Amino acid sequence: MNGFSKEVFSGACHEAGHAIAACHLGLVIREASFTGAEVRGGASCGYVDSTPGGVFDAYVAVAGCVAQLRAVGQKESFFIFFQAQADYNPLRELFAPYLDKAHFEAYRRKLEDDVAGFLYQRGVWEYVSRFAKELLLGSPLPCGDCMRLTDEVPRAKLVEIQQIMLSPTFHNHMGRRVGHAKRLELERMLREAVEAVRPAFGKAPSFDGFERALMEEGYSEDEAEKLRLELSSFWPQPDLPG
Ligand SMILES: [Zn+2]
User: Fold this and answer.
1) C-alpha angle 79-54-235 in degrees, rounded to nearest 5
2) What's the CA-to-centroid distance between 86 and ligand 1, angstroms?
3) How does pLDDT run across 55-77, given as a tens digit for each residue?
4) pTM (2 decimals)?
5) How many whole angstroms from 184 Cα to the centroid of ligand 1?
6) 20 to 30 A Cα–Cα from 225, which one of 11, 101, 175, 240?
7) Which is nearest to 47 in space by CA: 57, 32, 64?
8) How far is the CA of 222 from the centre of ligand 1 (A)?
9) How many A from CA of 18 to the centre of ligand 1?
């Protein structure tokens, strides 16, 4: 991989996964960085600073590990998961008012499967890979570069993303086999979890300072306004799927 080890490349893919997922949801990436090439271990040496997405930040948060797993060719890795606690702790906090520990785990697993369903598509993975390579060439990447690299990433529709995050359909990706009884139990937990997080979708994030941040990055006032509208169009009273 241009002289980088698989481990380092997978660390860059972790950050790229966050970036591509954020872009898919219409969030704007203000900066992305990965400096793991200089540090042994590769992972947990970067960040993606994107505009707040409310509950959709959960989708972006899990995308790091999901992308990293694809880059190392594994379905699950306790090591990768363990390294990514900086992603999962805010996620736990985000859902803490709604979900207990077991429900959170069921919801998280389902979300990871769904994010994998998006990121692992051949065309989408090419964006992840390209973004990762750019991060390895020079970090941090400023907003303009992040936007250029994600410009053609397909955008989710609000209703699609709600279907993903609010539908209890259980995907058959549970990793090791859990047996019929356990599986039914997990499905029940997931249904309950999805019902419990529903209220979180009514809370729009704040877009304060968003346009100014873009203009500081060289966007014109019109462009910044357009991006804000695009982003906030995710939130006008979501028609929650039943
Ligand atoms: Zn991460």
Assistant:
1) 140
2) 7
3) 889 999 999 999 999 999 988 88
4) 0.87
5) 31
6) 240
7) 32
8) 32
9) 7
